[in-house]
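Minutes, project check-in
Item: structure for the 458-residue chain
Input as provided by the requester:
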Amino acid sequence: MSKKSLLVLGLCCLALAPVSAKTTKEYQRPSLHMVLMTNSDKAQKASKAQITDAKIMGYVAESWNNYEFPALYNNFKIPYQKAEINCVSGSIIDVMSMNINNMSLAELKQAQELMDGKKYRAALKEEIDKISDEVAHQLVEKWWSIGPEGTVSDTLLFRLACYSATQNQAGDAAQTTLGAQQQLFNELADATMANTYITFSKLDFYENEPIAAFTRDIMKKIASITSSASPIPGVYAAALAAADATYESMKEGYTAYTNNLLYRLEWNDSIANEFYSIWKDGSHIDMDKFKAMKFNLIYVGNTGANATCYVKKADLGQGNEHMVHKTIHKALNKQFANLQRDFEEFRPMVPVLGIDAKGGIIADMGTKEDVKVGDKFNLLEPVTNEKGVTKYVFKAAVKVVKWTSDKEGEFVDGVWNNEEIDNAAAADLNTNDGFDIIGTHLSKFKNASPSMFVKKAK
């Protein structure tokens, strides 16, 4: 049975539904599911050092639950939302449990390297690979709204496949014929499913002082071992001074350590054809065959991010819970910014909000996305052909420019300070006079307009 014949019933039900004319085979708004990794009882017992108490970790979980979903992705939530992991090897807790007094120089340097989290993320990947099929099955089940008895609906897939990055802009939809809808669906359905991403995030939160002291002690131990081999006077004293200076610079505040692994749902012609072959009719599949199918997550890559928050005047009296939420959210924002920086396929388009008084471009991004002055972006214009398919055409290379404001805190180092601003409320901050639009400012382009987008350059 062909995909076209399978979907006629669903398309007929949606024949009068508005479909955006701005659809494209080249670009579709990514869908994203987020999974929180937590230590299993086994991992908890295996750890020799506990520098974060259970109450604090409860705040960490709350912070994850309250984290605002990244606005430029479809929120594709499935039941599998938390994964218990059994590994502690290479984690900060694991490193802190080491007795550095009897370590060799090589072992001390290895301990330093463990602090960057690369070994830990490799261990996390091994844990995630064990649940890949289960998570992938749930993603496919959601895309096709598969019920326990094998009922199937294409409503969700149809809706998301036929909308481009502008789907969340109200009033940007137009009626299309049943034939046009079916053509768009046939072109975009599989590509839309293949554009489904999953992040697995491991969050840890610590007071800085114990880690600062541990870092200082490693530095001093290395200095002690290496100083005897150095003929230069004062080297040992300088190394000790550097270790103490490191401690002083690190000891205040709180730090969130985030490790994030990025995956994508594997969906290709071979998998799609096998899936379509198990359909009994236009609205049912063979559930036994579906359960027996092997689905997989494709590993894209990983990043780590640390965010430190210091207790400021505004934070006084608000307690640990406030500091945990503030630090965790800052770290998660940085984490997603790192993923988008390192993996081009995960970079979303950002809408242009307007043009400033000097002709510069104002984009809906800022400190939350870890944007910096000088960052380079591509300016893209959606161009729709006679068939209603949109291609995003490169218009110019632009970069973030320095900007100041009379309003305190509105910009940080020249970048819009949107750290505490909800995505849904961002549009309400802007007026329509063209010169009081809040956002990050980029260099000007003569024909730029609010209908365009920017995307981080390679």
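Outcome recorded: The chain has two domains: 3-309, 349-456.
No further action items on this chain.
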